[in-house]
Every structure is written in C-alpha cells, then in structure tokens.
Write a structure and sequence with these properties.
This protein is mostly helical. The protein has one domain. It contains 21 helices and no strands. Helix 14 runs antiparallel to helix 21 and helix 18 packs antiparallel against helix 19.
C-alpha cells in the first residue's frame, strides 16, 4: 500500500498540475474564440480522438502489463512485440486519415477544414504509439520521468496556444507583415489543433530513449497470446470510452438546429472542464493502480489491499466532490459568464466520475481471472444505456430546460451507476473481495447530507456566510475521515507531530 500511495502521489500531483495547466486554457478559449459554438467544435473533435485512441491501442496497454508481469515471459520481448504492433497499426491509420481527410471532414460537417481531420489523425496515431513507452515507464516504476514528459507535453501545448491565440493576434494588429508568412488571423480554432500537434511530436521525440530499448522484433507466438487477451478489452475500451464521449460525438445530430447544438455542446464541454478535478484523481489512481494490481497478484492473493484501495478511493473522491460543490461559486470563474448556465450539471458529472472510478476499481476481478469478455459485456450494456437516454431525452430536456445536455449528463450518471452495480455482484461471484461496505455507505450518506445542507445554506445565506458554514461542514467531513480511517499519526511527514 505504501508503494501504491507513493506512485499515486507522483502521478496524482503531476496529473493534477497538468490538468490544472490545461484547465487554464479554458478561460482563454471561452474569451478568445468567437462563441461557444467554436468551443463546441473543439469538444466534438476531441471526443472523436478519445474514441480513436482507444481503438488504436486496442487493449494492448493492459495486455502489456498482464504479460510483462508473468514470470514465464521475457519483459523485453513483450515490450518489443506490443510496441511494434501498435506502431504499425497507428502508422496505417495516420496515412488513411491524411489521404481521406476531405471525405471524412465532409461527413463530420467540417468540409471547409479538411486539414482538421489530417491533423487530428496524426495526433491520435502518435498518442496511441506513445501509450506503450509510457506504459513501459510505469512498469519500470519510473513515475518521475513519466510525470515530467506528460507535463512537458501539456506545457508545450499551452505555450503554443498562447502564442497562436494571444501573441500572434497582438503582433498582427500592429505589424501584420512580420508574421504573415505563417499566421492567418481568420484560422481561429484551427490553431488549437496545430498546438496539440506540435506538443505531441515534441514528446514523441523525447520518448526515443524508451522506444529504442525495444528489440524491434515481434515474437509472433507471444503477440498472438497478448492479442487474445487484449482484443476483448478493445470492445470493453470502445464501449467504455463511448460511454464518456458518445454524447459529445452525437450531440450535433440530436438537435435540428446545428448551430444551437454546437453552441450547447460548447457550454457542456466547458462545464465538464469545471468538473475535471474528479476525473484527474480517477486517472491518477488508475495509473498507479493497474501495475500495482498485476504485480502484487503475481506474489500472492492481495484482496485485502484491493478492498482498502477501494475504500480510500471513495473517501477522497467524496472529499473532492464536497470541496468542488461547496466552492463552485469561485470555481465558475474558470469559464466566461455566458457559459455559467451549464454549471447545474456539475454535481451530476462529479457523481458520474465517482461511479466510473468505482467501476474501474471493481474491474480487477475479470482482469485477474482472464475473463475480460465480462468487461466488454458490461461496457456494452453501459453504451446502450447512454445511447438510449441521449437519443430519447436530449430534445425533451432542450424543451423543458433549454439545455439538452442535462440528458447527456444524466445518461452518464445512470450508465456508470448501473454497470458499477452489475460489476460488483458479478465480481463477488467469481472473485469475491470483502469490501468495507459499511464504511463506504457511511461516508457516502454523510457526504450527501453535507451536500444537501450546503444547498440549503446557499439559498438562505449571503455568499460569505455560506462559504464559512460550508467550510465548517467540509472540515467536519474531514474530521470523520481522520477519526475513522486516517489518524493523523499515520500520515507521512506530519504524522510524527501526532505520535504519542
């Protein structure tokens, strides 16, 4: 558990810092881009890239961890075979995107900018390939280098965004001839994608030391076994990521007015950024948890540790939920005021992320007993729920609330709640783990009571009194955690001041 906590801290701090830095781009996008419809384009295309990234890695990241930790396999052969396989398929994809960009862009409604498709195709292909060297760093427990490279990618992207969206317009206003050879003042949102391309190429080059450690030889028999394990995860991954992105992919087609749909999608995407802290914690935990699970399982049954990991994940997720909801009146300034109408979905999104994180933690049962097809089935069930709710209710919510994205946020919550429950009961049948349900339910109920009280405080008190009272509630919840499960004496560094 100490190793998991250390790696989670490194991944978590770097991931949270990186996401915060990316988060800082949101105000610029909402102020610099002409309207929310332009940000809707960014939201839509990045939803597509998230889906394509899963397709292009086709479960090989998890397959790598599974086989590289088997005592019967040569780690270098596993790494080389996986890296080359993903590299070949990613290269083919990038070439296809560049050749067919005009046709694809026309289908997606971006026929005036076919280069968007070529750029994003290259980006997602390089990201897919880069997932394997990054996984290799996690396998080697080189969390420091992993974190540095991830942060560098984000920093380069931010610098390029600032240059193209703020510096270049300022220079163009005073001396347009100085930058006329590369800058088009009317290109707007396109520079968001160009910035991403530059950062992706840069970090891929920085990964060359890890890439060159491969033997550049594919063990066909080994690769066949890895693919047999990993390909069911492709279905799982596609369904899983579509549960998170399908609403943003199909949203422009669910309303009859495409301009209105893009505008609402921009608001929806921006408000998702406000809820990003929960997703960051889930992702950071995942980075450390997956290698930990396979490595500890190799050395014996560690179900008690898995149960503890689940409990503490939920505890800290609820703490984040309360912190964000209690101070949402401050956090909302990360986006422009005409986006604030979408902030009503933030608690729904946060709870959706919580259930998604619990579902991920529960998923270890089918990964450890090599029954990954159950994961695919669960994800497909979730996908059906997400699609049905979006298609059935987006238009209705648009009529009732003036915002169809209420249905999209609700669909995500319902989806992850249901598949979380199904996964729990199946897991208890095939790989029972004695989770501390009593503590988990206690924390959840107390957190929801605190949240309800916080809403009442907002309705009856002025903003400063409300902040003070909600801070007391948050401290009270933290005190419950310390009393029940995390005594101050057990916390690293500060613990020595509380030991008897």
């Amino acid at each position: 558990m100490a190793s998991l906590a250390k790696d989670t801290a490194i991944y978590g701090i770097s991931s949270m810092l990186g996401k915060f830095l990316n988060w800082c781009l949101v105000p610029m996008y909402t102020y610099v881009l002409t309207n929310s419809a332009e940000y809707g384009i960014v939201t839509n295309l990045y939803a597509w890239t998230a889906l394509l990234l899963v397709i292009l890695t086709y479960g090989m990241e998890t397959g790598f961890f599974r086989f590289v930790n088997k005592n019967t396999e040569d780690p270098t052969s596993v790494y080389s075979s996986v890296l080359l396989c993903v590299g070949i398929t990613s290269s083919i994809f990038a070439i296809i995107c560049c050749l067919l960009a005009p046709g694809i862009s026309s289908l997606l409604g971006y026929n005036k900018h076919s280069e968007y498709i070529a750029i994003m195709g290259i980006i997602v292909a390089m990201d897919a390939f880069g997932c394997i060297p990054f996984a290799y760093l996690r396998y080697q427990n080189r969390a420091g280098r992993f974190a540095v490279l991830k942060l560098l990618m984000i920093l380069i992207n931010i610098v390029c965004n600032l240059f193209f969206l703020l510096v270049c317009p300022a220079i163009h206003a005073k001396n347009p001839d100085l930058i006329a050879f590369f800058y088009n003042p009317n290109y707007g949102v396109g520079y968001v994608f160009i910035s991403n391309l530059i950062s992706t190429i840069s970090v891929t080059l920085m990964l060359l030391p890890e890439i060159l450690k491969a033997k550049f030889h594919i063990d066909k028999a080994l690769l066949k076994r890895i693919l047999a394990y990993s390909l069911p995860l492709l279905i799982l991954g596609i369904a899983g990521i579509m549960n998170q992105t399908i609403d943003k992919i199909i949203y422009p087609y669910l309303l009859t007015d495409r301009a209105l749909a893009n505008s609402q999608l921009g608001i929806y995407g921006a408000c998702f950024k406000v809820a990003m802290v929960m997703m960051v914690f889930t992702q950071a935990f995942r980075y450390a948890y997956e290698p930990f699970v396979f490595a500890t399982n190799k050395n014996g049954d560690k179900r008690d540790q898995y149960a503890d990991a689940m409990k503490f994940f939920i505890i800290f997720s609820l703490l984040i939920f309360l912190g964000m909801m209690f101070y949402l009146d401050i956090l909302k300034y990360v986006i422009r005021s005409d986006y604030w109408e979408g902030l009503r979905i933030v608690p729904i999104v946060l709870l959706s992320y919580l259930f998604q994180g619990i579902y991920f933690n529960l998923s270890i049962w089918y990964k450890l007993i090599d029954k990954t097809h159950y994961g695919a089935i669960l994800s497909l069930i979730g996908l059906v729920i997400t699609l049905v709710v979006n298609v059935a209710f987006v238009n209705l919510c648009n009529q009732w609330f003036g915002a169809g994205y209420f249905a999209s946020a609700g669909a995500s919550l319902i989806c992850f709640f249901i598949i979380m429950l199904i996964s729990y009961f199946l897991g208890q049948k095939y790989y029972p783990i004695n989770y501390d349900l009593r503590s988990i339910f206690t924390y959840f109920i107390v957190a929801m009571i605190c949240f309800g009280i916080g809403i009442g405080i907002d309705n009856w008190c002025n903003i400063w009194v409300a902040f003070a009272l909600k801070t007391i509630l948050l401290i009270g919840f933290l005190g419950l955690i310390i009393k029940r499960d995390l005594p101050l004496s057990a916390i690293p560094v500060i613990g020595r001041f509380f030991r008897k």
